[in-house]
Amino acid sequence: MVTGDSRAEITQRLRDIARDLLERGEVDVFIGYEEGSLPLRTTPAFITRPDDVSRLTWGALCENNLATYLPKFEGRVGVVVKGCDVRALVNLIVEKQIARDQVKIVGVPCQGVIDRRKLAGAVGEGPPVRSVEETDGFIIVRGSGFEKTIPVQEMLSPACATCVHPVPVLYDLLAGDEARSRGACPREDAFAEVERFAGRNVEDRFAYFAREIERCIECYACRQACPLCYCPECFVDRQSPKWVGRWRDLSDKMVFHLGRVLHTAGRCADCGACRRACPAGIDLRLLSKQMEKDALEFFGHEPGTDLEAAPVLATYRREDPDDFIL
Amino acid sequence: MGERGSGKALVMAKRDLGAFARHLAASYLVLAPIVEGGVTRFAVAGVDDIGGFGDRESVPAPSKRPLKEVFFPQEEVLLAFDAGGKVEVAAGAAAPADEVTRVAFGVRPCDARSLTLLDLVFDAADYKDPYYVGRRQGTAVVTFACTEPGVACFCTSVGGGPSDEAGSDLMLVEAGESYLVKPLSARGEGLLRGFDAVREAGDVELAAARDAEARAVGRVARDVPVDAAVEKLAGAFGDAVWEDLYRKCLGCAVCTYLCPTCHCFDIGDEATRAGGERVRNWDSCMFPLFTLHASGHNPRPSRKERFRQRIMHKFNYFVENNGRVACVGCGRCVENCPVNLDVRRVLETIAAL
Amino acid sequence: MGQATIRDAGANPYMPELATITQVTRETDANDVKTFRVEFRDPSTWERFRYMPGQFAEVSVFGVGEAPISITSSPTQQGYLEFSVKKMGQVTTALHYSSEGTVIGVRGPYGNTFPVADMQGKNIIFIGGGIGLAPLRSLINYVLSDEHRGEFGRVQIIYGARSSGDLVFKGELERWGARADIDQVVTIDRPEAGWSGRVGFVPAVLKEVAPRPEGAVAVTCGPPIMIKFVLSTLTELGFAPEQVVTTLEMRMKCGIGKCGRCNIGSKYVCRDGPVFTYRQLLEMPQEY
Amino acid sequence: MACETRCPGGKTVGAVLVVGGGIGGMQAALDLAGSGFFVYMVETRPAIGGTMAQLDKTFPTNDCSMCIMSPKLVECGRHLNIDVITNSAVERVEGEAGDFTVTVVNRPRYVDPEKCTGCGVCAQHCPVGAARDTFNAGLGKRPSIYIDYPQAVPLAYVIDRDTCVGCGLCENMCLAGAIRYDDVPRERKISVGAIVLAPGFRAFDPSLRQEYGYGRYPNVVTSMEFERILSASGPYEGRVLRPSDGDIPEKIAFIQCVGSRDRAHGGRYCSSVCCMYATKEAVIAKEHAPGVQPTIFYMDMRSYGKGFDAYVERAKQEYGVRYVRTRVAEVAEVPATHNLIVSFESEHGRVVKEEFDLVVLSVGLEPPEDAGRLADVLGIQLDENGFARTGALDPLATTRPGVFVCGAMQGPKDIPETVTQASGASGAAGALLGSARGTLIREKIYPPEKDLRGVGPRIGVFICHCGINIGGVVDVPSVVEYAKTLPNVVYAERNLYTCSQDTQKRIQEKIQEHGLTRVVVASCTPRTHEPLFQETIREAGLNHYLFAMANIRDQCSWVHMHESEKATEKAKDLVRAAVAKAALLEPLERLPIEVKQSGLVIGGGLAGMIAALDLAEQGFQAYLVEVGPELGGHLRRIHFTLGGDDVQAYLRELVGRVMSNPLIEVHTSSEVKEIAGYLGNFRSRILDRSQGDGEAGSIREVEFEHGVVIVATGAAEFRPSGFLYGEHPGVMTQSELEARLASGVWPGHEQEQEQGQGKATEARGGLGPGPGLRRGRSVVMIQCVGSRDDEHDYCSRVCCSEAVKNAIRLKEADPDADVYILYRDIRTYGAREAYFEEARRRGVVFVRYPEGQMPVVLRSEAAEPGDGGGGGNGDGRLVVEVTDTLLDERLAIPADAVVLSAGIAPNESNKKVAQMLKVPLNESGFFLEAHMKLRPVDFATEGVFLAGLAHAPKTIDETIAQAHAAVARASTVLASGAITTEGIKSEVMKTRCTGCGLCVEACQYKALEIDPKDNVAKVNPALCKGCGLCAATCRCGAITLKGFTEEEILAEVSALC
């Protein structure tokens, strides 16, 4: 359980680490979180001067996956990562998008992050939230004429519920006590949701995704927020050949989303960045989670946990199973 | 649009909003903010949707998707052609309309204001966009003054306000148990024709409305130094500040697609064996492809240039060409940016240069 | 700059006129540049389609899309339009695969024109590189036309390409070169067997030829890197920024100043350009 | 090279005569011509193609015979360095190895092949319509002026003067003026350095077997006749009909061994191929007419080849082919119906009569008709069966130096064996003539490629009728009309056979006539035919890659056989897709790559040594790497051949030659660690422990560069478990028995010497007394230990012959010994059959045990302690329990020795080698060749070849032939010193590449690396095989496979939508 104390503690540790790294010249930039401009937001902070480290903060609202800024980063960089974030970072190292020696990984034993959509639901319609306070496992929201105290645990992002590595699997420095991280989800429970979903009939499943994807406005925030989507030119943007039509009907949107899921299959570790970035609240987690499950079941591959393991769907071994193909 | 209304303020009981909705629905296609899968957008609405509008305790500030798509949809077919070489304007594409057939209902003042900016582009003196202009001429705008602006709102900083009348044909202002009904154009008056449940507003209602407006203005939290920023931007193109400002930008199009005034688009052909269609879609200056030449040269090669373009276009180039900033302070870009890159902070930073 | 044509406000500016390709001319050895002569299917279109040198049109291959292409014919040549097209993207490739008789779409004319009025009585120096001669050709033929030749002073043409095979409008180059009222220099980048003309990059040749700025206007078009050096060379030669005219290339879609793509600073290349003086360029952000 | 010593007189002519234009002759000719020799191919028939041209399908892959062969046909026909001389015979041979003068007599054809266009107008007008169609095995009729088959090479008509009425119509009709009535025989003298004989075989004439009624009953046909019945180009257009009434037969009987294994009527030998071809014909008949019920009457099922057992198994299981083990006694006709009554003895001795609608006689293979004459002309000896005599240890050399033999002329054999021998013989000839390589060949000069830059597509579409193969299902004319309407198509036509030589000419003419810039052929599969058409258009000045193919046979007419209309629609779709792709095709460049003229041979056994020697004799450096401490491999365990040759002496001689050859570098106790590079430019690293293992500095790491790799890793005798093997000293394997026999472990040795047989015995290694085997006792051999069982789905091929060989040895040494061979099928194929016969004659008892009931070896309860001897070491005697199918009884055979005929098991290390070379293994663990039928020693990976037991179990002579063949194939690469790469390659678009390196991991050919400078992937075009894996792996779409770009594929796909 996260406590106010540990938040403050971690914040302090992060500031100390950042100051130290910057002062020693071990990094040129330190990427962490700072308070945002809206009550429920934090925002990525790019700190270059030791004096600015006091801007850094930590809490259940530190939702962004900062690894997304790392591909082809020039210079040496320190970056704050949660358990899920670092798995994307591992992929980026494996895929040579950043050199291991160029990045100082500052891990935080994660207590889970708040899902703003869930919180909005808990607050309900009505006057907007104008301020937020995080305390001992609770979040207090206030607006004109109301105040609500909501347990953080109930507001966590769905990805946090199935997280099996709340403590980063790889770090140079750990800003906090491993023991204080949120308990890991037992492996056998991690895919309960997708298993339930997979049990539904195919029409239902299709209808679910059709409903989700229909809302897409092709702003590509999901892609841009995704640390694994670093292609210089995305397949949807290709003009020759044009994979995705301009009619922007459901099938075109499907091609994009399903294509993206496939491109991240065996790499995606469910950090939830895409879902959070989406202004339409599209949730494709079930699909990407299924990919994660398949990678594990078929190939024994757990995305982003092994610096030596290449993305499983991009490599071929003779002994790979193929009986599921047909 | 069109001639100004008589300006005589009327009033209707809040409970009569349903009746008004039925009245409108009888003669017009009514488009109102509808929640679909958690996203609010202007879509064809039923009487209950419209009538229930006023029942909400307080309507959260603007619909997630902007009003512009009622006039300038995200995708639309401009032309159809067949293999034989016949080309025609796509069926259903709006031609200039002589009469009002649609009502955009439940519009927020910022969105209504955005139309006056889009008009400058699509209804320009040299070339008129018949699709936009046709829809605009055929659509009346019924606005609700804001009483509870959102935390991201900054309309007052860009010349608007919770009861800004620009772009509206009819405005409803909460006044206790009633709505003050302000016809702002002949078209707005036309909407009331045949609707009996209105009477002339009394002083009490007018005063109540004024109070509500003042309260709302007070609640628009931020005073953004837009004018100062506009002034500074004239010389800021080459400033090093962009280096810091753009950094966390992800390069997505949330800000531009949800912006009620952004209007960049793309035109492309979709072919079938029998012919095809020429299609227009929203596009975004945030995308690298927006300016990429066929040769591979890109005048705005990185996120930095593209981010700068967005800010410069809204607060400098547009101002130079039209005398107005291309922003209505609706706060959508602030609210929905995945990394909380807040345009208000950007303007503040620039103003402080 | 010349005034943009303002079309009937009621018309649908996205509606192309249908035109038939009547002649395809291979320009380069590599055959990556072709000149298409087109005629409107409906002759009355000419009443709506009045253009001046410098303007462009949105040319479309139905099913593939539209591309902005400068008009390379001169309004003095009546009854047809000509477009010289380099095979680059999808539309231009599709055009290249179109043969005589193919019906294409043309809408326009768009953009401003070369400042013909301001050039009256002046010597004109044309400086072109590669396919960049295409927009200049419209003006050159306009200036050289019987009805207008008297309005301008001496004409100088400096034109270069990578190799002799990359030179465009070879027939016309010969005719121009033969005229007494024209000083023409054609150059290629590298020496080549069988080439007896000049060798060297256009800016260098320009420096050698050293046209005098007095009472002159320089009009240049070519690849960006050439333009960059031509502009500085002209400046060295004493040309004031106002005396130098060029055309800009930008990605465009609508052609009518709406889609936002060709926006540079407060200008829209499709509407405020594509012809700009060097002076104007200096005042614009360097985003082209 | 070796020529100085081998070619007396020193003169060496760089040309070779190939006698016979069947598949063997063609393969030999192509290999020779490919490795720098000019070839004269003399064929007696008017066209080349041989028997394979007449076959419908081939086993065990059911490939269409003509389809897989026709590219070779055409290549021979148009090869600059192959002079195809048809309708001709070799009349005289003078001179000697290295310098022969051959007189060839050209029989009159009465048609000038240079002028004839093959248009066929003459045949249409010929008044004679009923001449016997020899190509269709006499089942059909043809005019007097004819071609054998539409793809014939050369495509020139010939007049059969025996039936010609001399009316002159053909001469009148021939626009080309090609008819020559006054044609006379012509003699031609050619000068060659060597001769390769490949005249094929003659089918046994079954009318000699009166009891089967061939010639009397219309519905008794030969297997070749049935083959033509099945063929789409045959007299019944591929419908299974019987000759008497054209009805579809239901019950078809196949009678095996007609003219084989038959001392009375035909050859004593086994014809080797009939079991398989009958099975194939049964399967194909069933495919053509599902109602057919085939029964095969056989004696032993000799499906001994690679993949053959599995094929027979499939015939049984999937096709319901019935197999009856018996010898058919008689066939009688029911006159009213022309049905046939087949009488045979059932397995249990009852006489059964069964009625059939059609009887197919599986006729044997006999030496070719003019074998005797040829032997005289060439001065070579024939063996007792009339085939060319060769040695078991030199299977390709005839008795006359410089004259080599391959294919059925050397003994009955199937296509892959023939092709292997053909390559082998060409290799042997090449080795002989090495010094004259390249002296007489002509280089192909192509016209310059047309400059098509920027020229839009002008597509020509050629649609193949393929007899009824396509035309019988698809309405080809309507597809042609449709093709004409497609965008960019400026010309379309149909061809009877688009692959025929005249059509190639026609395509070229059309390219010029219509200014075509892209060509689409709609016919069969690009796998076999694309190179042919690419070559055709290249000769017309178009880049090879401006070609697209629509497969309207395999993917259309074959699979939609019964839906003509839909198939036609689909054919249109496929053509439309190909046209759409063709419009986007771009010229691609083929790069020349230098070839290192050396080879790495992995494995120092028989195959490896032969290969190394061949390489050296052809003048190439050879690196021979053997994992064991000594050369010899499995051959070290074999002491004598069936015919009695001293294998060990041969081995010693061979090792001596290898060790002393200056061009061979031998590394024993060595292991290949790494093979990098590609065809022509391999670089290998080996660890040589021959100087000792483990001591500092004793392990040498050696690196060398080489142009080819020959995999000859061998195999080993399967180590059995059970049967008390390893538990009882009296239980041994055949090779263990052979070792004992060789070291004379047999009582009676002295006696034999006394009887004056000492000399023979000596030659056979000297038999003497020893432990384990004693005179007058019983030896039981158990066949199929580790073969044809659940773990080993293949036949080990050699064990039957080995058992027979050793059984004869035992019987020779002690005629009183009881020798039993417990078997399922005795597979002494070919001439080995004679030894089977001999074994029986000598009293070896053959007991057939049933499928799935392996004999059991037990210790005898009643041990006889008094026996003493080697066996009597307290382990007791042995008893073998077996069910005798003939007696239907369980037997308990006491034995003092049990010999297990253990199969050949693939080496475990094959996997490693396979991985290093990126070549496949089959399911059994043997290496998998590029094509079972026509590329038996090649791998799909270029520059890598295969020989010996690593490929599959085989005999010594087969191994030797294969090793020669592998080198012959290799030398087609090595000889020229340079090769040209394919144009289809990957290309990286730098701006899209993220440098993630996944393509590098994906590439099986090591063709990609990340360029550290700009951190993007880079393709090595020499290594890239164009497989496209990288393109598929690249998420960013940065990799394009030229020739298969996304645009092209999408155009194809969207044309279908």
Description:
The complex is a heterotetramer of chains A (326), B (353), C (288) and D (1057). Chain A has 326 residues and is of the alpha/beta class. Chain A has two domains: 1-114 and 162-190, no CATH class; 191-321, no CATH class. Chain A has helices spanning 4-23, 83-94, 116-123, 158-161, 192-198, 202-214, 221-225, 250-264, 273-277, 285-299; strands at residues 29-35, 42-47, 56-57, 77-81, 103-107, 129-135, 138-143, 146-151, 173-174. Chain B has two domains: 10-71 and 78-219, no CATH class; 226-351, no CATH class. An eight-stranded mixed sheet of chain B has the order 3-2-6-7-8-9-1-10, with helices on both faces. Chain B has a four-stranded antiparallel sheet with strand order 5-4-12-11, with no helix packed on it. The mean pLDDT of chain B is 88. Chain D has 27 helices and 52 strands. In chain D, the strands form 17 sheets. In chain D, strands 5-2-1-13-24 form a five-stranded parallel sheet. A five-stranded parallel sheet of chain D has the order 15-22-16-17-18. A five-stranded parallel sheet of chain D has the order 32-31-30-36-47. The longest helix of chain D is centred in the middle third of the chain and has 21 residues, at 564-584. At the A-D interface, loops of A face helix 25 and helix 27 of D.
Helix amount of chain D: 25-40%
Total number of β-strand segments of chain D? 52
CATH class of the largest domain in chain D: Alpha Beta
Strand ordering within the main sheet of chain D = 5-2-1-13-24
CATH architecture of the largest domain in chain D: 3-Layer(bba) Sandwich
Structurally, the number of domains of chain D stands at 7
What's the overall geometry of chain D? globular
- End-to-end C-alpha gap of chain B: 38 Å
Judged by helices, strands and strand pairing, the structural class of chain D is alpha/beta
Instruction: Count up the domains of chain B.
Output: 2
pLDDT average of chain B, as an integer? 88
State the strand order across the main sheet of chain B.
3-2-6-7-8-9-1-10
* Main beta-sheet strand count, sense and barrel state of chain B: 8 strands, mixed
Oligomer: heterotetramer
Number of strands of chain B: 12
Share in β-strands of chain B? 15-25%
